[in-house]
Amino acid sequence: MADISRSEAAQIAEHCTACGVPHLAAGFLGEGLSLDEVKARVSAVATVRQMSTLARQKEPSIPADLGTNMLAEGYGVSEIRTELFERIVAEEEKTSISSHVPADRGNAGISASRASMERALKARGITPTGGAGA
What we know:
mainly alpha, 6 helices, single chain
């Protein structure tokens, strides 16, 4: 554990407070991190929070604290990004998407088509002959 000056400790506390994570300052000081190391970790926290927010907009079932918990467990930003992406994809794969109309529609299509054709013929002054094959 590296010794840090009181001045650097104060800068670390100020930086954490300014970035909205004052609760992390004590842990950083306990680990003996330098100000530059603290800035890198705080930046990672901000990045992970932003990624988590965006991921949850796409897939609300992702736990809100997933990213920050993974960060606390020692995972890096790229590993957390991968995990969030995989969870989004897994949920999307559960959704069935079909670009065609289901075939089970009975004869409604034929009746509607016939009625439409009869209207078009009548509009042009042609009398339909009334039946298939006629």
